[in-house]
Amino acid sequence: MKIGIDSFTIRELKLDPYGIIDFAQQHGFEGVQFDSLEEVSPELDERKLQDVKQYGDARGIVTTMSINNCNPITAGVDEAVHRSVLEKQIRACASAGWHELRSYIIASDERYVHQLPWSEHVERSAAFITSLRPVLESCGSRINLENHGDTTFELLAIVEQVGSDICGICLDTANTLVNAEDPVMAAKRVAPYIRMTHIKDAIISFTDRGVRRQGKAPGQGNVDFATILPILEAHNPELMLAIEDHKWLFDIPIFEEEWMRKNPDITALELSSFAKLAVDTERRLAAGNLMQIEEYEAIPYREQMEERLTQGRDYIRSLIQGGAE
């Protein structure tokens, strides 16, 4: 497996796509996962996309691409228009040699606040991706849905309904925590369908309403990468591990009845495993092994970015090399 970065991680540097590839190469990464087509070519200029792909290839940097969301309910345009946009994006990516494409069906907290039930979002998104089958088949491409506020349970249902030949999963290891999923259990659940990743770490700590998630560099949080990486490698030895790092606090109100009702897939076993992670964090905070939540969050991410990326890269690499030995 190769170690890369998601371009969102270094967005504050405001680099063009060539600069992003250069940054990755200069900092010892082997790949770049572009967060959106717009940051490479808003006009979908196929020559530009091909040139960026070739630029990465010439430097030994694997590149992958992301496309717009696949939820017609939240797209903001007529569904037929949205489908046309996605079809153009898929063809443009294929022209450059990008066939595994990251996407998502939730941008923020729509799962909890949208006027339509989330189950309808899931059903409509599955139908929408299915409608893209002709263009995906003709291009030899696949849409990989990131767990971006939804659950691996829901994404697994979509993949199985749509078909894994045109739909897979981009596993975000720390986004599992947003819906009280245990990261290891989540990885096992969807492992056969993972084609892309966001390698992200975080800690969760208790609040009056539940828990709070805080982003950390890989190896510094609650995500058990030593267990997860062999699971991923067993199903996809060529998988790129794209580190996506950022700050921001996320509250998960697991103590509230309304939240629990909207997460019927979480079993008592998984919730208890999730809670153990928070207990571990509380012990580390009490022992002084972690900076206090508010104190750490107050430091601008830009000041810590390169240090966090270096730590995360070296930690993930040590696990890969240790596994190979």
Q: How many beta-strand elements? A: 11
Strands across the major sheet, in which order?
A: 7-6-5-4-3-2-1-10
Oligomer: single chain
Helix/strand/pairing category: alpha/beta
Overall shape: globular
Q: Could you tell me the mean pLDDT? A: 96
The low-confidence parts are none
Strand-residue proportion: 15-25%
Gap from first CA to last CA: 14 Å
- Give the SSE order as H and E letters: EHEHEHEHHHEHEHEEEHEEHHHH
Q: How can the largest sheet be summarized? A: 8 strands, parallel
Helical element count? Answer: 13
Helical proportion, percent range: 40-55%
Q: How would you describe the overall organization of this protein?
A:
The protein has 325 residues and is an alpha/beta fold. Helix content is 46%, strand content 16%. Helix 7 links the parallel strand 5 and strand 6. It is globular, with a radius of gyration of 19 Å. The mean pLDDT is 96.
